[in-house]
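pls design
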């Protein structure tokens, strides 16, 4: 018992320490409440928020009053907005709401500008850029108004054969938009053609398109009549003053071949003609034939 009393007894110094610790704990516990009581209430400026709400309400009321044309629905959902329509003379914005791309709309508008008209629902399916799936989505909503009395109905084929010839693009000067206007060339393919043209310095014959990634003989056969070449505008390299960085840009040459061309010039003097290039052992005849149009002696 005496041991227990001794264990639980504290000196005056220990009691003071306990009291100070208790006071610190009590202060830590009460400090958040004291801070909230002493801090002045924070004021927020809600005028901008209220103004935004009022503007939203005004727009919503206007939409309810005049009706929503579907454009806001498509912007928010990313899905087409279908409605009954006559494809003849339909505005571009209405075509876009129906889910067509800008390029497909341009194709339809070009068809109309050349005198084309849709006489039956099936005529829309014959536009080359309209897929079967897209036509299937649109077909239930097509309502074609009959042409004025006295005008003889013609088939889609008759309108198609009366179109003006497709525009012909000059490959060495045309830009991306001009290439995309060529039937059979989309944005991605137009970008590839221009990148390869810039790397080459220009095309000197149409067959070089077969070297563009993704171009096969079937596609080339469809495009060759819609393209032309002006070899006079290709970028040429003076072979007797060109450095390594100038020649390495040519896609037909490997680094080893570029180095061999420079070493031969250093040892034997300036090149005078294509015959001198044939003396560079690592240059096959086929490669020489490809690079000659880009070199100036």
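designed seq:
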């Amino acid at each position: 018992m005496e041991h227990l009393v001794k264990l639980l007894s504290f000196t005056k110094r220990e009691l003071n320490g306990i009291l100070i610790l208790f006071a610190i704990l009590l202060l830590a516990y009460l400090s958040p409440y004291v801070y909230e009581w002493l801090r002045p209430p924070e004021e927020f400026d809600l005028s901008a928020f209220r103004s935004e709400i009022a503007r939203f309400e005004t727009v919503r009321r206007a939409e309810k009053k005049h009706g929503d044309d579907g454009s806001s629905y498509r912007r928010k959902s990313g899905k087409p907005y279908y409605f009954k329509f006559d494809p003849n003379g339909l505005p571009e914005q209405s075509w876009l709401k129906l889910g067509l791309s800008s390029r497909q709309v341009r194709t339809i508008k070009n068809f109309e500008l050349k005198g084309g008209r849709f006489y039956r629902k099936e005529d829309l399916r014959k536009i080359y850029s309209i897929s079967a799936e897209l036509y299937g989505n649109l077909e239930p909503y097509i309502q074609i108004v009959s042409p004025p009395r006295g005008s003889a109905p013609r088939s889609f084929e008759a309108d198609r054969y009366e179109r003006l010839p497709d525009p012909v693009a000059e490959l060495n000067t045309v830009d991306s938009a001009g290439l995309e206007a060529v039937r059979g060339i989309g944005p991605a393919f137009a970008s590839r053609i221009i990148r390869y043209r810039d790397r080459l310095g220009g095309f000197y014959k149409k067959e070089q398109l077969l070297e563009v990634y993704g171009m096969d003989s079937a596609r080339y056969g469809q495009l060759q009549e819609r393209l032309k070449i002006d070899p006079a505008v290709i970028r040429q390299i003076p072979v007797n003053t060109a450095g390594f960085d100038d020649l390495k840009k040519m896609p037909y040459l490997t680094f080893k071949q570029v180095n061999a061309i420079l070493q031969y010039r250093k040892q034997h003097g300036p090149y005078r003609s294509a015959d001198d290039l044939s003396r560079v052992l690592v240059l096959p005849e086929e490669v020489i034939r490809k690079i000659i149009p880009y070199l100036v002696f």
